[in-house]
Design goal:
Keywords: Methyltransferase, Transferase. Helix content is about 45%, strand content about 15%. The protein is α/β, with parallel strands linked by helices.
Length: about 240
């Protein structure tokens, strides 16, 4: 049975939200570099757009993409969307600590819940797609984002791709990454079992591109890679 977006959100309870900042930086080597580069790619794409409005989907947890963009572009404003209350609360704390909360509108829910006339100059979808079960759910989210973007607006998409079991060397290296950060052999085994059962990433970079095409976006430019994870910039087609 395919999970709904709500089922996906329920994976991020208070316990997982509290540990997300540390765990995400282990699971994704280069986590902060990816967020920093995403900010640079959007700034380069918008070309000094001034007071741009940025839609940040799946902002819960660290809110690091907003923090990185806000440091680079002091006039940008953000709408942070996340369906998980504990994750959005964790993000709120980070935004407040980094003096960005007054530039951010927080939305507990889904992109589909935003006002129909809400329009944005750019958007980010980082660490979300592989938590949505099935291509239909992935396309739904991408199309919902597209509906709120101005013509030609850039979108950053970042997340895991590949069927995990199809890449045994990467999977083994991912386990070593946890060991590198102090995980015991049993903990590494549990982490590997969890990743094999707990997500549904697109099975290739071509599959990511096809999802974007199907959802009304153009060719994507890849700007980051780390084991299973990739990050791309694409644009809304007219």
């Amino acid at each position: 049975m395919k999970s709904s977006p709500l089922n996906s959100a329920e994976k991020f309870d208070t316990s997982r939200a509290n540990e997300y900042a540390r765990q995400s930086r282990i699971a994704l080597a280069g986590y902060d570099a990816c967020q920093d580069l995403a900010a640079c790619m959007l700034a380069a794409s918008l070309g000094g757009a001034g007071s741009a409005k940025i839609l940040v989907v799946g902002a819960g947890g660290t809110a690091q993409e907003i923090i990185a963009m806000a440091a680079l572009e002091p006039t940008w404003r953000f709408t942070a969307v996340d369906p998980c209350a504990p994750m959005l609360e964790a993000a709120t704390q980070q935004l407040q600590a980094n003096d960005v909360l007054d530039r951010t509108h927080l939305h507990l829910g889904y992109v589909e819940d935003l006002a129909a006339d809400a329009s944005y100059d750019a958007a980010t979808l980082i660490g979300v797609l592989h938590h949505l079960d099935g291509d239909a759910a992935k396309r739904q989210t991408l199309r919902s984002i597209r509906a709120h973007l101005k013509p030609g607006a850039p979108l950053i998409v970042a997340g895991n791709h590949y069927a995990y079991a199809s890449q045994p060397l990467l999977l083994a290296a991912w386990g070593q990454r946890w060991r590198q950060h102090g995980a015991s052999p049993d903990e590494v085994k549990a982490k590997l079992g969890k990743i094999l059962q707990g997500a549904d990433p697109p099975h290739s970079e071509a599959a990511v591109q096809q999802l974007l095409f199907d959802s009304g976006f153009a060719d994507a430019t890849r700007f980051f890679s780390s084991l299973f994870c990739g990050a791309w910039l694409t644009r809304k087609t007219s």
